[in-house]
Amino acid sequence: MAERPEDLNLPNAVITRIIKEALPDGVNVSKEARRAISQAASVFVLYATSCANNFAMKAKRKTLNAGDVMAAMEEMEFERFLEPLKEALEVYKKGQKGKKEVSEQKRKDKEKKQDSENDRSREEREEKEREEEEEEERMEEEPDAEEDEAEN
């Protein structure tokens, strides 16, 4: 839990970015107004979280899910935000699915590369072993050739 009330506030950079995106170009917002908006947003998030937590507790769960947040929005009489919230959630899910697919593909590519490198290493070891065996055979044959020459 938060140690100080300020710990519950949203980051100023995030609030400033949201404000700039919501207002037309050329509109300035005072530091005092940004602070008030930040505090109001923080209170809203805490209230929404508390309401969503009540729905999770009723369902005997400790984890809040999107359904709990949707139900909380409705209970708080913010029904008009439900549709944009659902759309944003769908975009998020698609993005997460895409990230998961990319991550899975990277993992498969890495495994293929490792398998390929292992195959090459194995082939190189086998080739080296063959060369060493051939060298040993040549070494064994050479003394015989010297003995034959000595006899003649």
Automatic annotation (TrEMBL):
Domain Transcription factor CBF/NF-Y/archaeal histone, residue spans: 9-73
GO biological process: DNA damage response; heterochromatin formation; leading strand elongation
Basic and acidic residues composition-biased segments: 92-128
Ranges of Acidic residues composition bias in the record: 129-152
Entry keyword annotation includes Acetylation: yes
Gene Ontology, cellular component aspect: CHRAC; epsilon DNA polymerase complex
GO MF annotation, one: protein heterodimerization activity
InterPro entries referenced in this protein's UniProt entry, alphabetically: CBFA_NFYB_domain (IPR003958), DNA_Pol-Epsilon_Subunit (IPR051377), Histone-fold (IPR009072)
Region (Disordered): 92-152
Gene3D superfamilies assigned: Histone, subunit A
Keyword set includes Lipid biosynthesis: no
Keywords: Acetylation, Coiled coil, DNA-binding, Nucleus, Phosphoprotein
Compartments, record wording: Nucleus
Assembly, per entry: Component of the DNA polymerase epsilon complex consisting of four subunits: the catalytic subunit POLE and the accessory subunits POLE2, POLE3 and POLE4. Interaction with POLE4 is a prerequisite for further binding with POLE and POLE2. Heterodimer with CHRAC1; binds to DNA. Component of the CHRAC ISWI chromatin remodeling complex at least composed of SMARCA5/SNF2H, BAZ1A/ACF1, CHRAC1 and POLE3; the complex preferentially binds DNA through the CHRAC1-POLE3 heterodimer and possesses ATP-dependent nucleosome-remodeling activity.
Its job: Accessory component of the DNA polymerase epsilon complex. Participates in DNA repair and in chromosomal DNA replication. Forms a complex with CHRAC1 and binds naked DNA, which is then incorporated into chromatin, aided by the nucleosome-remodeling activity of ISWI/SNF2H and ACF1. Does not enhance nucleosome sliding activity of the ACF-5 ISWI chromatin remodeling complex.
Protein name: DNA polymerase epsilon subunit 3
Organism: Mugilogobius chulae (yellowstripe goby)
Upper classification of the organism: Eukaryota, Metazoa, Chordata, Craniata, Vertebrata
